[in-house]
C-alpha cells in the first residue's frame, strides 16, 4: 500500500511547493510595485514643489504613482527569450534596464530635492518628469512584450511539428 500512496504524496508536495513559489513571486512583484509607487510619489512631490500648475493636480500625481507601480511590477522581472544563442541584442532586456535606470535616477534626484529642500530650475523639473515617465513606460512595455514573447513561444511549442523529412 505504501508504494501506491508515495507518488500521490510526492504530487501533493510538489503542488504545494509550486503554490508557495507562486505566492512568493506575487509577493515579490507586489513589493516591487509598492517600491515603484513610492518612487512615483517622491517624483510627484518634487515636481509639485515647483509650482507648475499641471504638476500639482491630483490626476498628475495619481498617474505618476500608477506608472511607477505598473512599470516596476511588469518591467523588472522580464522573462528571457526561449532561444538565447542568436547573437542579437535583446531589445526587451535593454529597454527594461534603461527604464529602471531612468526611473530610479528620477526618484533619486527627487528624494534628494525633498530631503535637502531644493527646488530645481523649471527646465530640470520637466527633465525629471520625462525621466520618470519615460522610464516607467519603458519598463511596462518591456514587461508586456517579454511576457507576450514567452506566451507566443509556449503556443508554438504546443503545435504539431511539421518536418519535411517525415513525408518521404
TrEMBL record:
<keyword id="KW-0472">Membrane</keyword>
<protein>
    <submittedName>
        <fullName>Uncharacterized protein</fullName>
    </submittedName>
</protein>
<feature type="transmembrane region" description="Helical">
    <location>
        <begin position="53"/>
        <end position="74"/>
    </location>
</feature>
<keyword id="KW-0812">Transmembrane</keyword>
<keyword id="KW-1133">Transmembrane helix</keyword>
<feature type="transmembrane region" description="Helical">
    <location>
        <begin position="94"/>
        <end position="114"/>
    </location>
</feature>
<feature type="transmembrane region" description="Helical">
    <location>
        <begin position="126"/>
        <end position="146"/>
    </location>
</feature>
<feature type="transmembrane region" description="Helical">
    <location>
        <begin position="26"/>
        <end position="47"/>
    </location>
</feature>
